[in-house]
Hints:
A: mainly beta, 10 strands, B: 121 residues
Amino acid sequence: DIQMTQSPSSLSASVGDRVTITCRASQSISSYLNWYQQKPGKAPKLLIYAASSLQSGVPSRFSGSESGTDFTLTISSLQPEDFATYYCQQSYSSPYSFGQGTKLEIK
Amino acid sequence: QLQLQESGPGLVKPSETLSLTCTVSGGSISSSTYYWGWIRQPPGKGLDWIGSIYYSGSTYYNPSLKSRVTMSVDTSKNHFSLKLSSVTAADTAMYYCARIFWSGYYQFDYWGQGTLVTVSS
């Protein structure tokens, strides 16, 4: 099975900050990497698919990139509604595993 | 606008079978571009993929649950279902159904609101 490891597990930041969350796969997954945002009591929401493609309707301040087995979600300028938990997920092979999550909190 | 809605008992006794249905509205479950899936989230924890099903009935299950999971689809009712047998307290979780957009890549692009299932006597 492919293991997905996110870092950091939690992060404090301020409105307007640039934030980066990293996800590392235990083996090559090509670009089969998705990012989701989850707010308390809500279902996850797809932000980025195929490592760097922005899902329709998602603000352009969100972006994704990859380097080998390392993947990055960047929020260019944090907005109040961005404070949430973020998950990466690999869709390269079954079982389709998620990272453990990164909780983004207000500083 | 596509909507998915989970339904089923919120309380299941240990050793019994958990049964949930996801009803899809605003779109057809029979589209060739999509799979349909179940994901669960234990309280305060992360997300786990349970399995996926195609409108034809083809299924893919997480090996960790495969011996206990059965998924089915009813295209006439535009819904798909999950059965998880021999449940224990470890199966207590929020259960989400989701649409999976498949075009080479594979992502959960629409989610239901989730339904909390508690396993307790």
